[in-house]
Design brief:
Helices cover 33% and strands 23% of the residues. It is α/β, with parallel strands linked by helices and 486 residues long. The chain has an eight-stranded mixed sheet with strand order 5-6-7-8-11-12-13-14. The protein has a seven-stranded mixed sheet with strand order 3-2-1-4-15-16-17, with helices on one face. Strands 9-10 form a two-stranded antiparallel ribbon. Strand 2 and strand 3 form a beta hairpin. The longest helix is centred in the middle third of the chain and has 48 residues.
């Protein structure tokens, strides 16, 4: 069954572009998805190379899964399949989604820092959702195991196209470490609630009353302490490395010295051994301080991951909403100058917009309509939040919320609603393409149309994120996976 938002999207397409709906039958997954070696030659009236860079009447050549040539006067190679479109752009990225991860992994309550979402990728599930998501233009999703856990582990960036092998479906096996602070899902007071209705006690579904304020602050301390422990582990590893190098140098110098004075050393040793024997004492070899090899820090998978985060080798995405927790997190990480912090959710982040902008901390928002029964930490969020943060200089990305695999198909529609509430269209296009790829360390692979990058491309009837921008073809990992044939 399609969600109300998806039905709204279909109705919108019919109202704003009825002739287009008749001229272009609903796309479907074609059998071409199995032809990985097929060369594709795409001509477009407009090629959106990257946000702000456009080529008119140009072509793009795709071979062996990669973009191999771009240009106005590009000639079609013999045997290549030719496609045409009004607009060609990079596929959209859902920076906070769930599609592509196995259910057991998605709901795993025992995740730790070293848990890898890539190990739980299911490339063959939810084929109908994958099709609808491609129709919406989303080609890649960042997924996390234990999506609402306090520590969700290392996320993966995966392609949604069906028919791809697990290897081809994973764009990036290690996209970010994810943690959460103050979620109602982790509150100790969860459980059934009761109301009096017409004099009768009625049991309601599980409560979303939120987490106790003291528990929320404890969550902040837990996250900042984890980062500090990662930094300490990293320092101990670096110290051990230097101590080991010094020890090896001293040992080498001592060996060289002994080699030079071997005969004298041998005689001295024999004399000392003889003297000890005559005096009835036990002979003991001389030991030098430098002979004691330094002890390596105890290896720990979680500590290794936290050390990478503290050193800036891996982004840290923290799902946090409320003002108090945001203040504590930003204060507690202020001196971690290598930390690459990314906020997720951030319903009440507007009060910290100036600080987020100054520290270059991106925010991933899920611009959803929150109705009755939503978790209380979402009360500060609305469809104008992305625009307000953007106007304040904050880098804004978009995601579908990380819990429902079906939500990725509605993400472009929700982003269009944010555009209608003041978010700049060009910034929205960047947030769904190159901007997301940069934050997730995938900009060398996807996010723009450049030579050498993976061919994850959309062929549209008009500009993306407009009512005319209907997706006609989708290329994923160099394969044609969506066509307009009925």
């Amino acid at each position: 069954m399609r969600s109300p938002l998806h039905r709204m999207a279909l109705l919108s397409a019919w109202v704003f572009a009825p002739s287009m709906a008749l001229a272009n039958p609903t796309p479907r997954i074609g059998e071409e998805s199995g032809k990985g070696s097929e060369a594709l030659f795409v001509r477009a009236q407009k090629v959106l190379v990257r946000p702000g860079v456009v080529l008119e009447d140009s072509a793009v050549l795709v071979t062996n899964g990669k973009i191999t040539a771009i240009g106005k006067d590009l000639a079609k190679p013999e045997g290549a399949r030719e496609l045409t479109a009004k607009v060609l752009c990079a596929g959209f990225i859902d920076a906070w989604g769930a599609l592509g991860l196995g259910v057991d992994s998605l709901r795993d309550g025992g995740t730790g820092a070293a848990t890898r979402a890539a190990d739980g990728v299911d490339a063959y599930s939810d084929e109908h959702l994958r099709r609808e998501t491609l129709r919406a233009g989303v080609t890649s999703v960042r997924v996390q195991s234990g999506t609402t856990s306090r520590v969700s582990g290392i996320g993966a960036l995966v392609r949604v196209a069906p028919g791809l092998s697990v290897e081809r479906s994973i764009v990036l096996p290690e996209a970010a470490l994810a943690m959460s602070i103050g979620l109602s899902a982790n509150a100790s007071n969860q459980g059934p609630t009761f109301e009096v209705v017409d004099g009768q006690v009625v049991q309601r579904a599980s409560s979303m009353r939120g987490m106790d304020p003291f528990d929320r602050l404890a969550d902040v301390d837990r996250v900042t302490a984890a980062i500090e422990s990662g930094r300490s582990y990293l320092v101990s590893k670096n110290e051990y490395k230097h101590e080991l190098e010094d020890w090896q140098k001293k040992i080498a110098e001592k060996e060289t010295e002994l080699d030079k004075e071997f005969k004298k050393a041998k005689k001295d040793r024999e004399k000392e051994e003889k003297d000890a024997k005559e005096k009835g004492k036990k002979f003991e070899e001389k030991k030098y301080k430098e002979d004691k090899k330094p002890t390596a820090p105890r290896f720990d998978d979680d500590s290794e991951t936290l050390a990478r985060v503290a050193n800036g080798d891996l982004p840290l995405v923290v799902l946090v909403h409320r003002h108090a927790e945001l203040r504590g997190l930003l204060s507690g990480t202020e001196k971690q100058d290598r930390l690459r912090l990314v906020l997720e959710g951030a319903s009440e982040a507007l009060a910290f917009a100036e600080q987020l902008s100054a520290r270059n901390v991106p925010v991933i928002l899920a611009p959803a309509l929150n109705g009755k029964g939503a978790a209380d930490e979402l009360e500060g969020s609305d469809l104008e939040l992305p625009a307000r943060l953007q106007r304040a200089g904050v880098s804004v990305l978009f995601g579908s919320g990380g819990q429902d695999p079906a939500a990725s198909r509605d993400l472009p529609l929700l982003v269009q609603m944010s555009i209608g509430h003041g978010f700049e269209r060009e910034a929205a296009f960047d947030a769904l393409t190159l901007g997301a790829a940069r934050v997730l360390d995938a900009a060398d692979r996807i996010g723009s149309i450049e030579r050498g990058k993976d061919a994850d491309l959309l062929l549209l009837d008009g500009d993306p994120l407009t009512s005319e921008g209907r997706v006609r073809f989708v290329i994923s990992a160099g394969r044609l996976v969506l066509t307009p044939e009925g």
